[in-house]
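Hey, quick one: can you model this chain's 3D structure?
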Amino acid sequence: MTALLSVEGLGISFGGLKAVNDVSFTVQPGEITSVIGPNGAGKTTLFNMISGVYQPGQGRVLLGGEDVTGMAPHLLARRGMSRTFQNLQIFQSMTVLENAIAGFHLSERGPVLADLFALPSSRRRAAEAQAGARDLLARVGLERAAEREAGNLSYGALKRLEIARALALSPRILLLDEPAAGCNAVETEEIDHLIAEVARSGVAILLVEHDMKMVMRISNHIVVLDHGEKIAEGDPAAVSRNPAVIAAYLGTEAANADG
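Sure thing. Here's the predicted structure for all 259 residues.
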């Protein structure tokens, strides 16, 4: 199977400190690849390089065989890469439906004059965006909350809304940065099922998540970082038995729990 995303020798330094060094892996269509590691391992920095937020200092990123290294996020979005962030990027005072519609801005954009004078083409695009947004809200279980103000939703519902908005771009690959962070057990399970459903539809998932139970349950492939370097890679069973992973990540978690 040809990889949808290929990360080849990616690295970056800040003030002479190697934040990520020579990391390589691939992501397949319809599969969930998780990046794990202790705090400060370089997971979000890696995401930022892949998604165009940071310009890598070394290596390259291939999307569908095209070199997209350092390409701006909006250009990557047009090529099928969508992303969520650790911190919610929700318009709290807008309705749930309006937030979902905002996700269609790249695909619904048309001539300025058509929008200015509300020409039929503009109204048609707006109607299509609203219909698409309602479909996405149904997909993430928020159709009944469409007219509610987003700021009144639970934290888990806001996380699902953010995923819905990312899906509005019809991505080939979806990057999820800690989608279950701050969620309770029920909310985490809802997000777990949603991510698995998206992957089954053929979308590749690249996931950063600290909830190890969730990672082990839904991942097809796991990449482990420690101090900016890849120390292990494989399926959940192999990674969970790897001594380097146990020492660097699981051991750290256990030590914290004992403390």
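One thing worth noting: The first strand starts at residue 5 and ends at 14.
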